[in-house]
Amino acid sequence: MNSTTITASWLDGKRYLWLLSPMIPVLGLIGLLLFQRTGYGLLAWSGPIILYGIIPVFDWLIGVDRNNPPESAVAQLENDLFYRVIVYCYIPTQYTVTIYGAWLAVYGQASTLELVGLIFTVGTINGIAINTAHELGHKKGGLERWLAKITLAPVAYGHFFVEHNKGHHKNVATADDPASSKMGETFWAFLPRTMIGSLASAWHIEKERLARNGKSAWNAGNENLQSWAMTVLLFGALTLWLGWAALPFLLLQAFYGASLLEVINYLEHYGLLRQKGADGRPERCTPAHSWNSNHIVTNLFLYQLQRHSDHHANPTRRFQALRHFDASPQLPSGYASILLLAYIPPLWFRQMDPLVVKHYQGDLSKANLYPPRREALLKRWHNRTLDDGNPDLFPGRHAVSAAGIATPAAIACYQCTDCGYIYDEAQGCPREGYPPGTRWSQIPDTWPCPDCAVREKVDFVAVAAAPSEASAQSKSPTF
After folding, report:
1. Which parts of the chain sit beneath pLDDT 70?
2. What string of DSSP letters covers 132-182?
3. Spatial separation of the C-alpha atoms in residues 470 and 122, rounded to whole Å
4. For residues 157 and 71, what is the distance between their CA atoms, to the nearest angstrom?
């Protein structure tokens, strides 16, 4: 059977199940409506009940799905507008929950316990919304990137758009990444480190980009300032409407929502480390540098975020096309259940530390260790043999075909070996501060691809001419 036949016959069996993702704010809204209507206080807690109760139970009952779409069907999946609309649909209901929740907090005559429940419910919806912003922010289109910023406004975490795409994806699983947790580090130690570090990183990234354009960091073109301004506008308007009592509610739900993002960050790369080569640079990010999960229910609710290994290797790939790799490190359960363990360090360490040891086959010198506990971890775990698996660590590099490589005299274009982005010297990259005519030799070796941030300048390959966008997208690497 040829690839054309496979594409024609293959159907996404989860096509309509993906509608569960934008259903999360709908369920939250129903819970708030029922709370106001019935006065039943438990309904004020509908967000945490869904996140910490219902989803984990169904994950356990239904299990995992390791199926991948055939590569011949990926282009069809990526271009299907249905999947994009699913992502967009989260946003209007998210804003409705935020506004309605703030109104209930001020005028709903909620008890203290019910008010706390409202904070957690609205924070849950906005925290999960960061995943919607994550899916949108990785895309190349201007509309989707602006929608990502709009989605981040109710959770007051607009700098995530900059830091995640240009910071985290470049530095993931290294000591330089504030969003990569270390083996032996508790979530409660990680939370302030990642919140402060991510904010500082986002500001530094934009400051450098604007400086290359001869502009101040306080310029209106600063994408952090753009995103934060949306939050100020939203929170300011609601405070003017509802009174000052709304502001603490909005700030507390935003903090909790942001903490949901960070607990997911905590478990996604725990203890994993990219090894440095002879040149001192970290190896390329591969599926070995992210914890993966195929628990189907959480994946349906989170746009397949749990297939994080493929996402970090190919960040511009849309959620419906992300793949499972048998040898990528696997979490023992879905995000919705294991994040509960992250809140309780002894249980977390008991579950995850042996998995890190297994992943590195007992050689903890290769793991990302928390410095205050480094000696204790090495004493306990180093060179300990676990006989229940031998994971493939993906040591290889992407093979780059020599076809299309230009001779030195003709070289003017350079292609990212991950996402296919083309740097054309004639066009430059003005948004990153490199005007038309900027020679490739003038760009620093550490400059990351502006689209995927997975590859740096030294990973690009010279090409004779810029291929069409469709051709470039078809070059997404496979493992």
Report:
1. 1-9, 385-411, 465-479
2. HHHHHHTSSSHHHHHHHHHHHGGGT-TTHHHIIIIIIHHHTTSTT-TTS--
3. 40
4. 35
Local structure of residue 405 (DSSP, 8 states): P
Residue 385 has a pLDDT of: 57
Question: 422-424 and 413-415 as β-strands: parallel, antiparallel, unpaired?
Answer: antiparallel
Distance CA 276, CA 77 (A): 36
d(CA 138, CA 161): 9
How is residue 455 annotated by DSSP?
S
* Beta-bridge partners for 183: 369
Q: Which two tokens stand for residue 375?
A: 């000696």
Taking residue 19's Cβ as centre, other Cβ atoms within 10 Å add up to: 14
Q: Under DSSP, is residue 475 helix (H, G, I), strand (E, B) or coil?
A: coil
Using alpha carbons, select from 150, 136, 147, 114 the residue that is nearest to residue 42.
114
Q: What angle do CA 436, 442, 443 make, to 5 degrees?
A: 85
Q: What are the start-end ranges of the E strands in 364-470?
A: 413-415, 422-424, 461-463
* Cα–Cα distance for residue pair 401/348, rounded to 1 Å: 43
Instruction: Supply the pTM of this predicted model.
Output: 0.83
The Cα–Cα gap between 377 and 375 comes to 5
Rounded distance, CA 393 to CA 112, Å? 50
Query: Would you say the C-alpha torsion 367, 157, 24, 85 has a positive or negative sign?
Result: negative
Long-range Cβ pairs for the range 218-225 (8 Å, 24+): 223/149, 223/161, 223/162, 224/158, 224/159, 224/162
Q: Smallest Cα–Cα separation from 270: which of 318, 335, 324, 314?
A: 335
Q: Nearest to residue 248, comparing CAs of 119, 107, 125, 154?
A: 119
- As a whole number of angstroms, the distance between CA 52 and CA 66 comes to 23
Q: Copy the structure tokens of residue 172.
A: 């993931």
413: three-class secondary structure by DSSP: strand
Q: What are phi and psi of 346, to 5 degrees?
A: -60, -40
How far is residue 218's CA from residue 210's CA, in Å, rounded to a whole number? 9
- The pair of structure tokens assigned to 407 is 């001779």
Q: At what angle are helices 142-152 and 223-242 packed, to 10 degrees?
A: 40
Q: Tokens 């405070």 identify what position? A: 239
Distance CA 7, CA 33 (A): 44
Q: Please give the pLDDT value at position 416.
A: 87
pLDDT in tens, 73-95: 888 888 899 999 999 999 999 99
